[in-house]
Recover the amino acids of this structure.
């Protein structure tokens, strides 16, 4: 008599079901591992560990800018400093191909000088200043409804060297290729100012981190 016949029918069924469960579990584990991102969240520079909304309504992971030099600016359309859009676009024209990314965040916190919708802001920027750098949906940069990114940038705990409340429209934070906040420039400091240009140029001369080179890029896939 074979060994299989010596086993009771319920036991055979139990063994078969157990084998099926183990096989499915192994399959799921293998595919879950394969789908995991190469870099853990802990490996992402903290200032880039945010997802924001583009001015067109798409979700954008700031990790896409890892390896770039990034200038983060809160902007407004009806401010005495609005003409800085022209200078920001000039920076984009001169340095985008070298690795500079400018991120504009419209905000209505100061003097209600950004009252328009995202669509209206996009049209204003294009028609008046030919803006081609990346613009994002309107956010709050101060107060109880402050956007998480700006909570990070202004907190003593997370950004001790350059913390402090956003002072007005066109406050500027510069982030290095390795994802560190390395400078902050006041609203009245023009994007074309010598100290801004030098900080950007120095940052661009630094090598792109290996971790940034290895990451898959949605921007490159577009």
């Amino acid at each position: 008599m074979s060994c299989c016949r010596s086993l009771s029918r319920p036991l055979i069924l139990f063994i078969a079901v157990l084998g099926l469960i183990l096989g499915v579990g192994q399959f799921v584990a293998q595919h879950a591992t394969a789908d995991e991102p190469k870099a853990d969240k802990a490996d992402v520079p903290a200032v880039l560990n945010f997802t924001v909304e583009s001015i067109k309504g798409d979700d954008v992971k700031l990790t896409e800018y890892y390896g770039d030099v990034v200038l983060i600016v809160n902007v407004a359309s009806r401010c005495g400093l609005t003409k800085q859009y022209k200078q920001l676009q000039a920076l984009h024209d001169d340095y985008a191909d070298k690795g500079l990314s400018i991120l504009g965040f419209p905000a209505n916190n100061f003097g209600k000088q950004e009252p328009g919708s995202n669509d209206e802001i996009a049209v204003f920027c294009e028609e008046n200043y030919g803006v081609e750098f990346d613009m994002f949906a309107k956010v709050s940069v101060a107060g109880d409804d402050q956007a998480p990114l700006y909570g990070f940038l202004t907190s003593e705990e997370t950004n001790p060297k350059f913390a402090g409340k956003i002072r007005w429209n066109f406050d500027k934070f510069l982030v290095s290729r390795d994802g560190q906040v390395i400078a902050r420039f006041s609203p009245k400091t023009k994007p074309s100012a010598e100290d801004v240009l030098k900080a950007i140029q120095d940052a661009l001369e630094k090598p792109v981190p290996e971790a940034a080179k290895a990451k898959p890029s949605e921007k490159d896939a577009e």
About this structure: The longest strand covers residues 69-75. Confidence is low (pLDDT under 50) at residues 1-5, 27-40.
